[in-house]
Amino acid sequence: MIKELKIASLAIAITMPLAAFAASMDADGDGAVTLSEFQAAMPDAEAGTFSIVDTNADGVLTEEEIASAQEAGTLPGG
């Protein structure tokens, strides 16, 4: 199941520009992705992935953090 999710997520991420990928997780459109928004967008992500991506530990993900995580392979789309 996780492998299938990663493949599906990767396919989606490849077809979307970074901003669209981040925006797709940002349900309330405030420019930041909260833990609950992340979990809703990626329900099968491993526990702790949000914390790994949230490099400044402020409790939200920015487009820059998402881009860095994609480049590092932590999130699909790098």
Main attributes?
globular; Recoverin, domain 1; mainly alpha; two-stranded antiparallel sheet; 78 residues; 2 strands
Average pLDDT across residues? 82
The largest beta-sheet arranges its strands as 1-2
The rounded Rg comes to 11 Å
Number of strand segments: 2
Write a structural description.
By secondary structure, the protein is mainly α. The protein has one domain (2-72): Orthogonal Bundle (Recoverin, domain 1), CATH 1.10.238.10. It has five helices and two strands; from the N terminus they run ααβααβα. The protein has a two-stranded antiparallel ribbon with strand order 1-2. The model has no long low-confidence stretch (mean pLDDT 82).
Quick description:
The protein is mostly helical. It is 56% helix and 5% strand.
Summarize the helices and strands and which ones pair or pack.
Blueprint (H helix, E strand, L loop, with lengths): L1 H14 L2 H8 L7 E2 H7 L7 H5 L6 E2 L1 H10 L6
Antiparallel strand pairs: 1-2
